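step: validate -> pass
step: tokenize input -> pass
step: predict -> running
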Amino acid sequence: MRRDGRRMSRLLEAEFGTEPAFRRLSALTALDEPARTALQRAMNRARMVAARRDVLAEGAEINETLLVLDGWAARFRQLEDGRRQIIGLLLPGDLIGLCDQERPLASCSIVAITDLQLCVAPDRAASPTLARAYALSRALDEVHLIGHITRLGRLDAHERMIDLMLELLERMDLAGLTEGGQYALPLTQEVLADLLGLTAVHVNRTLQAMRRAGDIASHGRALAIANPPALYRRIARTSPRVSALERSATGRLNFMGGLT
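step: predict -> pass
step: emit ->
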């Protein structure tokens, strides 16, 4: 019976080991067998949210922690006059509603940017390695929020765009969704404008300037960054680290040119 159980665990890991969410959490810390099994069972109960549909409304009670399996979502605040500020993006492997307080309330709204696949995240008590992965994920959320505040407050339009694209490169790589500096970017210019505090016209001009300079190339919804190390140096960006005990939170690669 024990041999059969180990065989089933290996089969499940083979099936789900290539899933972006599984890859991201595994990249943050080595997951033990109980963590892998709990994630695999949770992923079997996935649900779908269509693009442009709300996932969570500001002020609503958070009843469960969700794990993004596929697709993109955005955290945002909507002003009374209709203006919107996107506070952050949610990508495969990110967690929604991970809270410690009793009966938590959503501090912002969340909307699906693309068709979104979610599952209820396994309880962190299922495994100490799962709890560690969740803690590191939350720490990365804080790093990205601090980075976003700095981006909006101190960088010009061109620098904001570069900084965002490098952050997304790091995050997509963590989930195994990059190849040679290229990744899918399903964001419209209107979404980029709401995210970067610019007008859609300014976003368009900035992207055109970056293409002319050879910094980026786009093919459909795929974005290719020509020379990530050079862009890191240009805007003095550093890869995020959130724990002295863990490897670099950028995952497989250090985009300044070496392995982590």
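step: describe -> The longest helix spans residues 128-154.
step: cleanup -> pass
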